[in-house]
């Protein structure tokens, strides 16, 4: 029985490695297909967006989080529930702008970059850009337009990984033409 | 640790991207084959890496059948969260692994509607198996076929030089 439980923790870890390695293979393939890093970053963001619009459904179904009252609550849910559920890490929420519409997520560790080193000729590649797209896509499905980007990245020599999120506007639900 | 569902979403998006990309580049005659080989190639590299991590502490395998049993049980459980349901062999280097509820296909409808599209979603997994076996010293060709949704057969043919 104890051997069984050993297997399950191992298999969780192995699944994490499967995800990390698959992501690595994907970025490698994109670098081969597109000539410059900017294009790769854009593609990663687009793919992340497509994943995010679906991931939000999975998230809402599995967590019992209700509607967030404001952007601060949204930030807390993202850091403490979503990141914990999907990546097993809890980033800290800091650096709020005075208007309360911008904040930073500080990640102590980033599971996507296990085993990864950026070669010199890819210095402007934002390796984990998929995350930005995922956050953007997921929040758009809950009526928030946000701008997400990496402010600091350990792969590019910074000490920590920092994601900067800015609230742009609330997306109004559009009724189809002809409805009153 | 990354959640299981993340891999499924990433895999879906990868397949979609590779096919969209190929279509936009406009080379119709070789599109399907290139997409499949791109995905398979990605799986190959990942399979090699994964098997190194899985087996670094285990003793070496007695023979090919032992390796295949490992793939069917431990490897499949770790990657797809279940075992292979049926392993058949002709004892001459060909093995057929049958999975009746393949994890990457269960989200499709279980009727015939997407049967034609389903092979796209198997290419990466074929590569995973081929990469894993390659790093265990077995060069092989892995193909997959589906007759009924979510149930698929992976055929492994060991190349003897």
TrEMBL record, chain A:
Its main location: endoplasmic reticulum. GO terms for cellular component: endoplasmic reticulum; Golgi apparatus; TRAPP complex. It comes from the Eukaryota. Keywords: Endoplasmic reticulum, ER-Golgi transport, Golgi apparatus, Lipoprotein, Palmitate, Transport. It is found in: Endoplasmic reticulum; Golgi apparatus, cis-Golgi network. CDD domains: TRAPPC3_bet3. GO terms for biological process: Golgi vesicle transport. SUPFAM superfamilies: Ligand-binding domain in the NO signalling and Golgi transport (SSF111126). May play a role in vesicular transport from endoplasmic reticulum to Golgi. PANTHER family: TRAFFICKING PROTEIN PARTICLE COMPLEX SUBUNIT 3 (PTHR13048). Belongs to the TRAPP small subunits family. BET3 subfamily. Homodimer. This is Trafficking protein particle complex subunit. The lineage of its organism: Eukaryota, Metazoa, Chordata, Craniata, Vertebrata.
TrEMBL record, chain B:
GO terms for biological process: endoplasmic reticulum to Golgi vesicle-mediated transport; nervous system development. It comes from Coregonus suidteri. This is Trafficking protein particle complex subunit 6B. The keyword Endoplasmic reticulum applies. InterPro entries: NO_sig/Golgi_transp_ligand-bd, TRAPP_component, TRAPPC6/Trs33. Its main location: endoplasmic reticulum. Belongs to the TRAPP small subunits family. BET3 subfamily. The keyword Cytoplasm does not apply.
